[in-house]
Amino acid sequence: MIAIVNSSPLIYLGKLGLLDLLQRLFDQVFTVGTVKVEVLDTSESEYATLQSAFSDWLTVSEVPESPLAGKLNEMGLHQGEVDALVLAYHIKKQKSDSVIVIDDLAARDVARTLGLRMTGTIGIILSATKKGILSKKESHAKVRSLVEETTFHMSAALYSRVLSELE
C-alpha cells in the first residue's frame, strides 16, 4: 500500500521517535515538496530524523497539474494539505491502493469528500499496535506524550477512547 503523508503526521511521529512506522507499515511513502519545506526546520528536535527519512525512504513526489488544486486553495487549506490531497487523489485515480496520512480536520473532510482512504498520526500508532510493531504499553505512553507534551490537538472524547483501546 502507498501512503501520502502531510506535514503534521511527519512532525509528530518524528517528535515521538516513531517516524519509521510509516516505512514499516507501507510499501511506499510519498510526500510533496511543500510539505518537505514545511517540516525541515533545523531548530526542531525531529529535524535529523526527518532529514534522514528524506534521504533514505521518504519520496518527494511532484504534484500533478489539476483543477482540483485551485478549488482546494479556495477552501482555505494550507498549501501542503492541498498538494498532498491532489497527489493522493491522482494516485487513487490510477487505481493504486493508497491512504493519505493527514491530521487537519478540514483536510480530512475534503479527503472524505474525494473518496480517499485516510488515517492520521493516532491511526498510525494504533495500526502499529494492531500489527505488533508497538506494544499496547508503548503506544499508550506515546499517545499520552503526544497529547501532553506537544501541540497535537484531539478531543477529550477521542483521547479517552484511544487510551481505553490501548489498555
Overview of the molecule:
This protein has 167 residues and is an alpha/beta fold. The protein has a single domain (2-132), classed as 5'-nuclease (Rossmann fold, 3-Layer(aba) Sandwich). 59% of the residues lie in helices and 11% in strands. It contains ten helices and five strands. The protein has helices spanning 7-15, 20-25, 33-39, 47-56, 67-74, 79-93, 105-113, 121-130, 136-149, 156-165; strands at 2-5, 28-32, 58-61, 98-101, 118-119. Strands 3-2-1-4-5 form a five-stranded parallel beta sheet. Helix 1 (7-15) runs parallel beside helix 3, helix 5 packs antiparallel against helix 6 and helix 8 runs antiparallel to helix 9. The chain is globular and about 45 Å long.
Chart the SSEs and their pairings.
Blueprint: E1 2-5, H1 7-15, H2 20-25, E2 28-32, H3 33-39, H4 47-56, E3 58-61, H5 67-74, H6 79-93, E4 98-101, H7 105-113, E5 118-119, H8 121-130, H9 136-149, H10 156-165
Parallel strand pairs: 1-2, 1-4, 2-3, 4-5
Helix pairs in contact: 1-3, 3-6, 5-6, 8-9
Quick summary:
This protein has 167 residues and is α/β, with parallel strands linked by helices. Helix content is 59%, strand content 11%.
Distance between the termini: 28 Å
Mean pLDDT: 93
Q: Given the structure, what is the number of helices? A: 10
CATH fold call:
Rossmann fold
Q: Helical amount among residues, as a percent range?
A: 55-70%
